[in-house]
Amino acid sequence: MLFNLRGALDSIFVKVLLAVLIAAFAIWGIGPGMLAGNTRTVAKVGDTEVPTQAYANAVQRQAQQLQQQFGGQMSTDQIIRMMGLDYNILNQMIGDAAISEHMREMGLRATETQVAQEIRSFEAFQAPDGSFSPEMMERALQNAGFTKDELYRDLRRGVARNQLLGSLGASTLLPRSMAEQLYVWQAERRRAAMINFAASDIAEIAEPTAEELLAQYEATKAAYMTPERRSYRYIMLTPAQFTDQVELSEDDIQAAYENRADEYITPETRDLLQVSFPTEEEAVAFADKVKAGADFATTGAEETAFTTEEISLGSNTRDEVASTFNAETAETVFAMDEGAVSAPIEGIAGWSVFKVAGITAGSNVALADVRDELEQTLRAEHAVDLMFDYIPTLEDAIAEDGSLSPVAEKLGLSLATVTGVDAQGKNAAGDAVVTQQNEYAVMQDAFQLEIGVEPQLKDIDPRDNTKGIYLVELAEVQEPAERAYEEVASQVRTAWENDARQRRAGEIADEAKARLMAGEDAEKIADELGGTSFDAKNVSRTAEGNSGLSQNIRRLIFDLPVGEVDAERAADGNGYVVVRVDGVMPGEPANNAAAVDALHAQLTEQFQGELFQEYQAYLLDKYKPEVNRAIVQQLFRSESE
User: Fold this and answer.
1) Same structural domain for residues 320 and 397?
2) How do residues 484-497 score in pLDDT, each as one tens digit?
3) 23 CB-near residues (< 8 Å, 6+ apart)
4) Is there a single domain that holds both residue 154 and residue 28?
5) Closest Cα to residue 422, out of 381, 470, 480, 366?
6) Comparing C-alpha atoms, which of 186, 216, 113 is closest to residue 155?
7) 5-14, 78-87, 206-215, 284-293 — which is least confidently predicted?
8) Confidence band, pLDDT 50/70/90 cuts, at residue 514
């Protein structure tokens, strides 16, 4: 009940613990006890029971809330089964019962004073001035469907639970000094000299011999296999196939035009200024001044508490003025010419004077001007309905015949055939056979099928079933095969040359490492060996502010001691990067108190999470939850489920 009134328990650690408990019960399972003969209790943890009625009410209440969020498109039974609400909520209630059982054993209970303080803290029970209101409490409980006794019982349990879990989550368990020490390491920055030797920049390599190329082929033969190819058949239905069957009447077109009035009719708007006065005499005096030449906004700001910005109401339609003020005001304002000032008009706020600062004429698009567009839209909409109406016929046919050829012949549908394509939709010649998005969706499915599987009706776009459906049937699978050396000779040569350049880049990197260790200038080494040098002056352990560095190079920079040199292969595989660490700048906790506080909070939360896991393991070992699965099945599941 407290969850319904307050939204959730106040402590974040309570939420974390309950989540851990729920996950644990789901993973470890629930005891096999069936509570035979007892239908009043759906589950039991120790001596603490989960009442069947409370469980059923909780599931239905959650399902009804979700049903409203989904716009009523699904029944509560569908929502319960689809989202597994019955099992999720049961796990939640079992986790809560485990905590309650532990509290009962330890004799934890809330005092009357603590319960009273909790009641007074509920915003739903407070008057506008913040004081406790018994009448507001009665109204809130009535709206929520709870009694005072239920409130007091749940509050006592909630206060005691917070005391128990609060002791587990004490933030003082982890000293801030630990966060400070970690921050020194975590916020450390480094300077490094780097030289990049790209393999692709190496022009001169030895000419490969025929034996070397053949050896390259033999060693990497798997890289030159033909791709798996598949042949398949499919039937596709889209709304476009039913457009010609749509029949539209003049009444259909007229109704569509009227339903889309907001698209075709733009109402007249007026830029308005308004000033209000408590008495009619003050309003009349102001209107006279403006008519005599005084500026409306400036004078209004001088004589009232309104600012010039507040005096301007901006652009308004007649309906907006009527809604904000009243119909009479709207009638008066929209009868005025541009620049005109109204006589004082009485309203809730007193007496108001209006000025029409500008008029924007409305527009009206005639039906004749949009008839073609409307017809096209209506045909597309009705075609979707016709497609849905036809789908059962297609389902019956495939259930009767089991394969696509007789179905297509019986129903007069097109049967498309795709032969020998790879997973990219290309044939053996490398030509793109599958080019359309709809065809690509079918092909992806075909590469997941096995021969002999009966076609299943599927949406072309799982996110939008109005785009159409298809059935696909696998005909043949051509397994990958080795390609002869003669077919791939040029590819083998390219691979050998790339490997040779990469090896040469490694040799150059080794030479650069030795020279850097000897104290030579990085820029000079780069110029002489054909690399690119640069200084990284402020490298962090993470990519923040240094996104140009790959993770492996960043890791190398923070692994090396100051003055040490090493090299790593470039992240893209193109050559090597030589690194020398030139300086280390530790993090400074004293100058970054907010960052240390955030780190301390993060560490504390992680520590408490681990502590909660230990507590959870203790509860699971101590209590053996029992569930009457028969009740759960009778309430929310069919016998087959």
Assistant:
1) no
2) 999 999 999 999 99
3) none
4) yes
5) 480
6) 113
7) 5-14
8) very high
